[in-house]
Amino acid sequence: MKNVIILGASGNIAKHVIDILVKKDDIDLTLFLRNKNRLKNTNVSKSRIIEGDVLAYDQLKKAIAGKDIVYANLSGALEALAKNIVRAMKETGVRKIIFICSIGIYDVPLKPVLEPYRKAADVIEASGLEYTILRPTWFTNADEVDYETTRKGKPEKGSVISQKSLATLITKIIESPEKYVHENLGVNKPNS
């Protein structure tokens, strides 16, 4: 049984991840979000729901304790959020994190809107944790699973990725957390 916590569980990508994970008997799922009324999933009866704020360190640390995998699906003050997550994981002995960033965070010059994503990625990479950073292209609502990845340092490809595709990749990493350890991957639809 893997103990998984989703931070920012009301997000669009998280919704798809939850829909996949709730069907798996070997996943003990905890959903962490500020307001449980924002959950878009209809089937969360097997999940534990915790209302809290990632910036509220004590709430976060308590929620993360005992988990095997942290999947962070966040927006806002990303650098501060990343620092809190890393600190909580280190203090509770949790090793694996999947962190969603953005395409373009290694472009020069860096667009100001992407600076928080870059800073958060830098925090995660320097953490010493078993991280997987995903840098998706723009999201679509297409009902398809079709993606490819590019490693950090290689030119990013594509312009779009379906939310369902990204969620599928995330769940594969959760199912096999030894894959993509210390990886920082661009994710896109091939030929997009």
Can you characterise this structure?
It comes from Panacibacter ginsenosidivorans. Residues 8-177 form the NAD(P)-binding domain. This is NAD-dependent dehydratase. The protein has 192 residues and is α/β, with parallel strands linked by helices. The chain has one domain (2-188): Rossmann fold (3-Layer(aba) Sandwich), CATH 3.40.50.720. Helices cover 30% and strands 26% of the residues. The chain is built from five helices and ten strands; from the N terminus they run E-H-E-E-H-E-H-E-H-E-E-E-E-H-E. It has helices at residues 12-21, 57-64, 78-92, 115-125, 163-175, and strands spanning 2-7, 27-33, 48-51, 69-72, 96-100, 130-136, 138-140, 148-151, 160-162, 183-188. An eight-stranded mixed β-sheet has the order 3-2-1-4-5-6-10-8, with helices on both faces. Strands 7-9 form a two-stranded parallel sheet. Strand 4, helix 3 and strand 5 (96-100) form a beta-alpha-beta unit. Helix 2 (57-64) crosses helix 3 and helix 3 packs parallel to helix 4 (115-125). The longest helix has 15 residues, at 78-92. The relative contact order is 0.16.
